[in-house]
């Protein structure tokens, strides 16, 4: 088991990334920087940042800084979902469901600590 597997925030972010990838498949393809690609990158970035925080071996400040960057990644994904909805590229109901998942991850990140989000594991 990887260090990040123990974190509820990472598990929720991973589930969210899978859901975003499924939703992005339905979006029309675009160029290199299309919206579907931006959504996928943002979802992966969120999971990767949480995984990186879980692996921090430096003092708590390194963990906290990386954890805060994870929160920023969640907010970026939330905005991209809103943009996709407002451009008519993502159905309102689907967007709402994905944004609820983002909010759940962000809540874990906002209130979490290494112990609090690792199911009792240090």
CATH fold-type name? de novo design (two linked rop proteins)
Question: What's the CATH H-level superfamily name?
Answer: 23S rRNA-intervening sequence
* C-alpha Rg (nearest Å): 15 Å
Count of all domains: 1
- Percentage of residues in helical conformation: 55-70%
Structural features:
mainly alpha; 122 residues
Molecular structure report:
The chain is mainly α. The protein has a single domain (3-111), classed as 23S rRNA-intervening sequence (de novo design (two linked rop proteins), Up-down Bundle), CATH 1.20.1440. 70% of the residues lie in helices and 0% in strands. Helix 3 (60-86) packs antiparallel against helix 4 (92-111). The longest helix is centred in the middle third of the chain and has 27 residues, at 60-86. The mean pLDDT is 82.
Task: Set down the secondary structure blueprint.
Layout: H1 8-25, H2 35-54, H3 60-86, H4 92-111
Helix pairs in contact: 1-2, 1-4, 2-3, 3-4
What would you say about this model in short?
The chain is mostly helical.
């Amino acid at each position: 088991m990887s260090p990040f597997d123990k974190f509820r925030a990472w598990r929720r972010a991973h589930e969210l990334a899978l859901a975003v990838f499924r939703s992005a498949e339905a979006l029309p393809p675009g160029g290199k920087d299309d919206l579907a690609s931006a959504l996928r990158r943002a979802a992966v970035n969120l999971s990767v940042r949480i995984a990186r925080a879980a692996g921090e071996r430096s003092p708590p400040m390194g963990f906290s800084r990386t954890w805060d960057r994870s929160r920023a990644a969640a907010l970026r994904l939330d905005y991209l979902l809103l943009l996709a909805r407002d451009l008519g590229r993502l159905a309102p109901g689907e967007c709402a469901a994905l944004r609820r998942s983002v909010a759940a991850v962000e809540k874990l990140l906002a209130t979490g600590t290494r112990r609090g989000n690792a199911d009792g594991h240090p």
